Task: inverse folding
């Protein structure tokens, strides 16, 4: 009888262990349904990728900085933060919607470029806006690779967009500028490929292609190449290239004035916040500022 009781006790312990094992295994596999990640987890992953990319670009915790990049338009663009998706809508030349492989959709605003308006609620369609929009519509239903770099105040994903597969991919931000369908504008926050986008915009402007041949550009920022220290700012610089180039060229769009401020002389110097998106430019000398249509403040 004692032997029988021991056998029953051992079998009971084994059965209890099997039950506990199944219970723990069920909790650990997250349900085991094999479904795609939830919206919250996908957005969190993309947000972390944006933060990691921004950290790599700045290198020192700063907002952003231009990095050295290849000179060719084509390239792999294979960064660790990049994601694949399909273009499902195109609003205009620089704004599109992508459905990522995860199933999530994001509105993408192309970095470093500004195409003429076609859908602005308070502005008429601008010169070459339709051409820029039609050009980007060529991406409809195409697979693209997205390199996110942050979000704008409207919540749109700021990104570089690569069209095509593998090593033959085309950086669409650069392509728009090469075709003269956009102007360079980093809104004070240049991205990883800013050197390439600036150079493409300048070449198109000098060649007089696209909107540079047909449109009145008005007070849009002058595109300038990346300058070495001491090279000066003969056309004005979007960002301050050297501490000695400290003259602020300020554009007041409401009053339609262009005034330059010299450090130590202008009482308004410290209050002037440079906004590249409104045409503000840095200069190294008064002569540079005046040659670009800026005047000294009236006393």
Result:
């Amino acid at each position: 009888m004692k032997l029988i009781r021991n056998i029953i006790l051992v079998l009971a312990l084994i059965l209890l262990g099997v039950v506990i094992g199944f219970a723990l295994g069920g909790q650990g596999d997250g349900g085991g349904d094999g479904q795609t990640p939830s919206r919250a987890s996908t957005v969190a992953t993309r947000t972390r990728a944006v933060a990691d990319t921004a950290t790599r670009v700045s290198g020192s915790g700063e907002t952003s900085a231009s990095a050295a990049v290849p000179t060719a338009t084509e390239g792999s663009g294979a960064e660790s933060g990049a994601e694949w998706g399909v273009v499902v809508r195109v609003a205009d030349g620089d704004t599109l919607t992508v459905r990522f492989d995860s199933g999530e959709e994001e509105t993408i605003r192309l970095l470093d470029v500004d195409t003429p308006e076609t859908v602005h609620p308070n502005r008429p369609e601008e010169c070459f806006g339709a051409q820029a929009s039609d050009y980007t519509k060529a991406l409809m239903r195409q697979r693209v690779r997205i390199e996110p770099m942050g979000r704008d105040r409207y919540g749109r994903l700021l990104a570089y967009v690569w069209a095509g597969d593998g090593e033959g991919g085309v950086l669409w931000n650069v392509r728009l500028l090469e075709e003269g369908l956009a102007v360079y504008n980093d809104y004070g926050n240049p991205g990883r490929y800013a050197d390439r986008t600036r150079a493409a915009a300048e070449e198109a402007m000098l060649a007089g292609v696209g909107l540079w041949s047909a449109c009145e550009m008005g007070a849009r920022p002058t595109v300038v190449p990346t300058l070495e220290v001491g090279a000066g700012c003969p056309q004005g610089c979007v960002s301050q290239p050297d501490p000695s180039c400290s003259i602020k060229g300020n554009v007041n769009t409401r009053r339609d004035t262009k005034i330059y401020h010299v450090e130590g002389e202008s009482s308004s110097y410290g209050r002037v916040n440079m906004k590249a998106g409104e045409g503000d430019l840095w200069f190294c000398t008064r002569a540079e500022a005046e040659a670009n249509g800026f005047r000294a403040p009236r006393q």
Summary: The longest helix spans residues 2-28.
